[in-house]
From TrEMBL:
It comes from the Bacteria. This is Uncharacterized protein. It holds the Pfam family RMD1-3.
Length: 274
């Protein structure tokens, strides 16, 4: 027996409505499942952008705050981790309170280690780890300083394997060679114990100069490169070249968070140069 047309129409409408309801529910469920992931991605991207703006504006504390929030939102974000390490080192470098400085360097080292764990095939993470550990070493006593030296060297060399002209890694190795050459006899004996004679023997003023000059070539007009090159020249007994490098540092544009302090140091050290 044929169903009346209006009954068929009602049943068809119900089926269509049910299908629409199920389809809408499926879409809504998908949106609920994927929305948090999209929102997190957008949030991390926004936080990184905000951190970058603060970093360019030379406000490392604000930059670090944004980067750390990005790390909290996405704990394995390689970019957020190495940028957090960078800003923490910048903040620690001229921090007068020893405990605060030590804490900042510890945070920087932790972020850098996590960055390398997240992506060991990019130079920036290795450089930031070398930088963080190196700053920790420079703030330590001579005996402790030597303990950090091998890791600093290894991480900087790894960064150069991945990026042969990385200016920061070149700079770190220039400073590393200079610091080894500046060791006293007692500290050198300790260094030989921890580093071994071969590694210790690889350091020289010539290598310090070579790496620092390469850093300047790789990244011209970077005040800190010129400043540390001047110091290497000075301590290697090359006074005229030191004077020129100090003057280059004073001419370099202010770009980084600590460039005001670097420029002041360059001016003071140039005046003391004989």
């Amino acid at each position: 027996m044929m169903q009346p047309t209006y009954i068929l129409a009602v049943r068809t409408a119900r089926r269509w409505a049910l299908g629409l309801t199920v389809g809408a529910a499926s879409v809504a469920l998908s949106a609920l499942l994927f929305a948090p992931r999209v929102l997190v991605a957008q949030s991390v991207s926004d936080l990184l952008s905000a951190g970058d703006r603060e970093s360019v504006a030379r406000r490392p504390s604000a930059a670090l705050g944004n980067y750390e929030r990005a790390v909290k939102a996405e704990p394995t974000s390689y970019v957020a981790l190495w940028k957090s390490a960078r800003e923490a080192v910048d903040l620690g470098e001229f921090e007068k309170n020893p405990e605060t400085r030590t804490g900042l360097y510890a945070r920087a080292t932790d972020y850098a280690r996590r960055a390398v764990a997240a992506n060991g095939n990019d130079a920036e993470g290795h450089f930031q780890l070398a930088r963080a550990v190196g700053r920790t070493a420079l703030a330590a006593n001579p005996r402790e300083r030597v303990k950090y030296a091998l890791e600093v060297r290894d991480e900087a060399l790894r960064a150069l394997q991945l990026h042969p002209k990385h200016p920061g890694a070149l700079h770190v190795l220039g400073v590393w060679n200079a610091e080894v050459m500046r060791l006293s006899g007692f500290s050198r004996a300790i260094a030989k114990t921890f580093l071994g004679g071969q590694v210790l023997g690889s350091a020289s003023w010539a290598e310090a100069v070579r790496y620092m000059e390469l850093a300047v070539v790789a990244e011209p007009n970077r005040l800190v490169h010129d400043l540390d090159l001047a110091r290497v020249y000075r301590d290697a007994g090359r006074r005229n070249e030191a004077r020129s490098a100090y003057q280059a540092a004073l001419r370099a544009p202010i770009q980084d968070a600590n460039d005001d302090q670097y420029r002041k140091l360059a001016d003071e050290e140039l005046k003391k140069l004989k």
